[in-house]
Amino acid sequence: MELTASAPRKKVVVFDYGFGNVRSAERALAHVGAEVEITRDFDRAMNAEGLLVPGVGAFAACMAGLKEARGDWLVGRRLAGGRPVMGICVGMQILFGRGIEHGVETEGLDEWPGTVGPLKADVVPHMGWNTVEAAGDSLLFAGLPADARYYFVHSYAVHDWELEVGNPHLAAPKVTWATHGERFVAAVENGPLWATQFHPEKSGDAGAQLLTNWINTL
Fold it and tell me: Which residues are known catalytic residues?
C-alpha cells in the first residue's frame, strides 16, 4: 500500500526517546511514502509535518524517558498548534491521565482523561492478531475491511473512555475498541492527535493502509 509517485513526501519524525521500536516504525513509514527521520532533537521534531511517538515497556519508564527528552513539552506544543501527533502502543497509553502498574501510579500526559490498568484476560499479555470495532466515519481505518486484523502486544489497556465532549476547538473524538478478555480502547482519533494500542508497523497490509491514511491527513 504505497502512495503514488506524484504525491509529495510528507516529513515525519519518529521521536527517539529510548522506548520504542523506532527502526520498525521508520521502515513502515518509508514504505508508504513518507520522508522519515529518527531523532530526539526538539526543533526538528517540532517542525516535522507529522510526529510519531512509539512506546514499549513500562508506562512509568516511558514517561520518565519522554520527560527527559522534553517529549512532554513537544507533544503539548505541537497539539496546541494543531500539528499532528500519533502515539503507538505505550506511546498511546501515556497520552492518558495516569497509568497503574504493579500498584504504582504514574501521571501521564493527560491529553485524554482515563486510566491505563491491567488487562483482565485468561491469557496475558495480549500478544498476536486481533480485529477491532472501528469508530464510525473513521479516517484512520478508511478503506479497511471490518475483519482486518492488527498486531497487539500489551498487558495493560484503557478500559473506559471518559472524555464525553472534548475540546470544542478539536474534532470530536472517534474511539475504536477491541476485545481480549474484556473490551478496551484500541485506537483514538481526536483532531491532530491519533493513537493506536496495536502496532501498525507490524500489522502487514492493514497497518500499511492505516499509516497511509494518517500520512494523507498531514
Answer: 89, 199, 201
